[in-house]
Amino acid sequence: MRICASLSHHDDILSEDFAKADMVEIRTDVFEGVPSSMVRRGPPGLLSFKDGVELWMIPNKDWIIDIGNAKRPAVDNTVISSCHNYGGTPDLDEIMEIFRSMPGDIVKGAFAVDSLKDLAVLYDVSRAVCKRHVIIGMEELGKITRIRSGLLNNEFTFAYIRMETAPGQLSVREMAEIDDNTMVTGIIGSGIGYTRSPAMHDAAFKHSSISGKYLVFDTPSLDRVRDVMIDYNIRGVNITKPYKTDIIEHLDSCDDVSEEIGAVNTVVNDSGELKGYNTDVFGIEKALKANSVDVRGEKVLMIGSGGAARSCAYFLSGKGCDVTVTGRNKEAVRSIASYFGLTARESTSVAVNMYDVVINCTPLNKGNEVSEYPVRIDAIDKSQTVFDMVYGDTHLNEMAKKKGCKVVPGEDMLAFQGIRSFELFTSKIIPYKIMRSAI
Length: 439
What we know:
The protein is of the alpha/beta class. Helices cover 29% and strands 21% of the residues. It has 3 domains: 3-180, Aldolase class I (TIM Barrel, Alpha-Beta Barrel); 184-281 and 415-438, Leucine Dehydrogenase, chain A, domain 1 (Rossmann fold, 3-Layer(aba) Sandwich); 292-408, NAD(P)-binding Rossmann-like Domain (Rossmann fold).
């Protein structure tokens, strides 16, 4: 994989990371010409024209030139024709038609990626195009196309030195540590820009001396999730809201626990076979134990009815707890109660302070209004234990601390389930403090 450092400022040339790049891009919207130091650099550079091709600016025939969508000039240089679509990723046929019309020796396409389906389309394009090419997915979701540049058969990929020049770029320093064997893992969900999982898992990779990168796949659907995991050689992913149950239909198999729960939060790609696991149960158990909370036989109020709630219900049922479940989705509440043998109650009929333990399994956080909680969280009292599975400064945690309740932090659950997930991905067991301190 060749790395092309896209310069954003003259001072980039002075950086120690400059030497880590295989190529350097000079953009004519940033530089008025090619610095003399670049001409003497040795390896060929890339001159990208943004406002029309100016032949006088080309240092010599060794330089590659990017002419954008202009007509091909009469030069001996290797020519790139390029297109950028910041609005989204067209379908396969449309991109192929664009590439066929380009006169360059190399065709380059950079597309905003908004879904897993978009990533799958870009992989399909990489297999369909006959010309030498550079195919890039922009934005956070497109980072996998930069890391797996070699897999896409790209001529090179772009990186920045001090400041990104396109959305979703990684730094030259990061890219220099990545190769075709780098393990890629990540998290799939919707509306998950807040997640701390990348910091946690990247710290675990570093501690284990594993070349790995954990990415965020924030997608509006699971359409083509299987293709993306297999085609981009993604070793494993965590699954979060709202896909913990929907993911199951895309898998080859599930372990016994996730099968019984009906929810998966970890998927492992074993040479093209996708297997689902549930590490949330492990996370719940270890988080409670770490905070000296024993729920056996306790009267528990569980708020929520999604995938996280199913894992919690499974755990609590195994501890002989007297569990009441409530939430805004009445049908889902009745369903989970029936499945696990719990008591279902409408939120308006729940007396919060009548329970020993209150567990929130909804994604509600400080970004929501207090009134959005299905129950009155101000009704809790200091005799209770409060476990909010959402990590961070939530309204429920804030209220519990104010009332003097015993609080089980969601960060503890996140770290413990992450330890188990990382073990499934890598066969390595990470000390709790490594993951917890990174959150």
